[in-house]
Amino acid sequence: WFHAAHVAKGERAHFKWGRANGWAMVTMVEVLSAMPENHKDRAAILEVLRKMVAGVKALQRPNGMWGQVPTEADMWDETSSTAMFAYSIARGVRRGYLPKEDLQVATKAFAAVMRHVAPNGDILEVSEGTGIGENLDYYRNRRRPVNDHHGPGIVMMAAAELLEVEREGAASDKARK
Q1: Cα separation of 16 and 80, whole Å?
Q2: Of 14, 18, 95, 101, which Cα lies nearest the Cα of 54?
Q3: C-alpha to C-alpha distance for 172 and 115, rounded to whole angstroms
């Protein structure tokens, strides 16, 4: 999805920014988690989530990350959007919204995120807050402050969700024995 809309100009942004897409995906899994099973819009949201995950999976880099602008191969790896995708996909699998095979995408992403967590716990390679850019250099040149407030929370959420997946998997393995 494109970054945002220029409401006053009546046009959309020119680029598909990672964190904007991350927020959209996080929002969908959170809404689905709170939404009743019989809600009239549930199937439509599930369809959008599954299409988005399919699109994002196709853009995951071999190292597990997604770029600051995921559709641009020369963009730098961005931690917060990768953590958002890892969280959302893991939650979607755990809640049954996505197929179990998608968990591999989330675990690969989270392993990559952890390479951007320093030994002292600092979170690295997180884009500073970002308005709507008119060109790719705007996104390419965003500062990446250590522990930018957009990173630590979602990194911890992704870790917690993957721990839940692991805990539930271990519990179900135990029950089978």
Answers
A1: 15
A2: 101
A3: 30
Amino acid at 130: T
Rounded to whole angstroms, the Cα distance separating 133 from 36 reads 38
67: left (phi over 0), alpha (psi -120 to 50) or beta: beta
Those residues with Cβ within 8 angstroms of residue 167's Cβ, 6 or more apart along the chain or in another chain: none
Q: Which residues contact 69 (CB under 8 A, 6 or more apart)?
A: 15, 16, 17, 18, 75, 136, 139, 140
Q: Which amino acid, one-letter code, is at 31?
A: V
Closest C-alpha to 91, from 29, 34, 37: 29
At residue 149, φ and ψ (nearest 5 deg) are -60, -10
The pLDDT tens digits for 41-65 are 999 999 999 999 999 999 999 999 9
The Cα 157–Cα 161 span in angstroms is 6
Amino acid at 112: A
